[in-house]
Amino acid sequence: MSDPARPGPGDSLSERLQSVTEALAAAPTPAAVFQIVLNPALEALSAIAGVVLLQQNGNGLQVAATQGYAEGEQTLWQDGTFEAFSPIQDCLEQRTALYFEHQEALLAAYPQLTTPPIGVTVVATAVVPVLLIDQPLGVIMLVFSEPHDFTPEERRFLRILAAQSALALDRLTLSARLQQQAEALSAFVALTEAVGLNTDLETLTQRAREVLRASFPDLALSYYVLEGERWVPAWLDQVPDDLKRLLVAGLPLDTPAYLHAVHTEVPVFIDDWDGEVQRIPYTESFSAGAFAPYFRQGQPVGMLVAGLHDEPRWTSQHRVVITALWRSLGGALDRAEQARQLEGRSALNAFVALTEAVGTETNLPVLAQRAQEVLQAAIPELSVVYYELKEELWKAQLVSDNIDPLTAAATRKGYPQDVPSFLAAVQTAAPVFTESWDAVGEGVAHTEAYGAVAFYPYFRAGQPFAMLVIGTLTSRAWTSREHALFIAVGRSLNLAIERAEGVAQVALHAQEVERSNAQLAAANEELEAFAYSVSHDLRTPVRHIKSFNELLRKKLDPHVQLDAQITRYLGIVDTAATQMNTLIDAMLDLSRTSRQPLLLRLVDLENLVMAARSELEPETPDQRVVWTVQPLPLLVADHITLRQVMVNLLSNALIYSRTRPEAQIEIWSEERPHEWAVFVRDNGVGFDPRYADKLFGVFQRLHRQEEFEGTGVGLANVRRIITRHGGTVFAQGSLGEGATFGFTLPRPP
């Protein structure tokens, strides 16, 4: 079969044009167009060579095709020297063909061309513009080795040939644009179908990546969000580990490529990628980058980033498809944000309900119901089951309504403890997210439709007792958002369970306290009865002893000198009876102190100490005492009983420093974070610190009655009063070196 672009040598110019027209209609590429045009031109006019030069986006003329020169042979237009060949520029500017029938004609028109460029011998030359609607696309130039007379028919032939070239190029350009638009539309449709109902950011970007990879396998795609002052990947394509660590840490706002995209507010395509210039290390494997920004209320919030590995420049097809995808994804992201806000409000309401339940509810199934409401408000498609361990089986206590009856029945019947995912959650004591759910491998019947399942375990006294489980039918993997949501709800439910257990323990403790109070009330009644008995039953025999001892004295003859031993015995009986009465009074006083209600108010301790000193000083008229009283605080206490405490402590200090020529008694206080401490120090006889724990006991004495008077009840009374105030007592001392007694009282909040 003959080539229509190569007519026979005997064909007329009209026949050649007809053949060229037919061939151009089927030309698939610009290179094919130029081949079809140059072949008949050279043959019909007997030119030795031809070239097609095209303008390239304002970057000057470039060789599009050549014909007639052997490979490697030096040409007129080699190395861009055609740009200095003035006839070409004039042809384009004047939009008319130039013909030079011999070299003298060329030099006459352009005397500056003393010799042809680069020494190529050119005798005759034709320079014909390729015009499309009067816009120059380039030129067709033919050169001859001999003089040539360009006839009107030849000139018409070349003009029509150039016009057909322009039309063929325009057809190919339109076809390419249509193809790009079709691919962009296909990408748009594919993305729209993929994300039409999806509002998850990670899923949206994954779908966008799949659409782009279908057209451009070499392309890498990631999506970044602006967090504070850094661009952080929300979804990251596969990149080298060093680059991944850098990107996960976040890129600063002034990273050049990101900053440029934000300023232009449209996709930015960067050819011949230079990681050093763009201030993004570890990106040597990329040859080109694209950055498409997203805004919300005028502020940047996201960035779609694409990269090429093999091609250094973005093609127009790349740009059209990525721009269309950027717009389409932008709409989907807007819908996702709206859905997120709606879900956020629903989830917030559900979280409020859960929080309120945490503070008031103690019924575990009700708490689990609140947790389910939170989860499904945020992600409606989730299935939720709350299990408890009963009879060594995980049995469902709560099943969400979107679970089919067969599965619901199986969950209520129960699953063994060795189900792998249940077991993993128990063993790790942490949430377990199982992806690509294998119902057969897990041994969980009727769950084959689920793609991913997650488990949150709960423990009581270190033993597992409950499990919150969620599942999804729409995906085989969990997103980071779903991870965070389940963990947050799981923790909230855990707090609620702990509180419910705490409330139960408090209720149990309250019952125990109630029993203890009842026992204490009974003991108080017994104590009152005992006090009454002491007051009446014990005093009577003591009075009898004293009375009979007095009668015995009177019966003895007053004129007879009594034996000294008899007198001593009678005195001992009197003293013992008096001491017995004193002890009975002290014991009754201790009992009253324990039962007397406390009236708490602000008490000026300094005034109270002065009053206690005034009460005690008449009892020690012959004792020389040096008082050192530092500023004392206001305390919240019962005035009457606290005065009793200070009287006992000061009296104790006076008694045990009586043997000193000069008693030195110091009183001061210390302010502590949650309490006041009050100290009373003397320079008396002190005590053996080994027996300090006995000082505050009832009837406990470390010195003989003959040495220092007292009942052994005063310090016991101090301890009881201070304990009722919520404080503590203490004592420090050494034999012969004095002692320090004191107490603490809580500070009001």
> Biggest sheet, in brief?
6 strands, antiparallel
Which strand-content bin applies to the residues?
15-25%
Oligomeric assembly: single chain
Specify the overall morphology: elongated
Proper CATH architecture of the largest domain? 2-Layer Sandwich
Main β-sheet, spatial strand arrangement: 8-7-6-11-10-9
Task: Supply Rg.
Answer: 53 Å
Structure notes:
This protein has 749 residues and is α+β, with helices and mostly antiparallel strands. It folds into 4 domains: 13-177, Beta-Lactamase (2-Layer Sandwich); 196-344, Beta-Lactamase, CATH 3.30.450.40; 361-595, GAF domain (Beta-Lactamase); 598-746, Heat Shock Protein 90, CATH 3.30.565. Helices cover 48% and strands 21% of the residues. The chain contains 19 helices and 24 strands. The strands form 5 sheets. The protein has a 6-stranded antiparallel beta sheet, with helices on both faces. The chain has a 6-stranded antiparallel beta sheet with strand order 14-13-12-17-16-15, with helices on both faces. α11 runs antiparallel to α15 (480-555) and α16 (564-595) packs parallel to α19 (714-724). The chain is elongated. The model is unreliable at 77-81 (pLDDT under 50).
State the main characteristics:
single chain; 749 residues; alpha+beta; Beta-Lactamase; 4 domains; six-stranded antiparallel sheet; 24 strands; 21% strand
Entry summary:
With 749 residues, the chain is of the alpha+beta class. It has four domains: 13-177, Beta-Lactamase; 196-344, GAF domain (Beta-Lactamase), CATH 3.30.450; 361-595, GAF domain (Beta-Lactamase, 2-Layer Sandwich), CATH 3.30.450; 598-746, 2-Layer Sandwich (Heat Shock Protein 90), CATH 3.30.565.
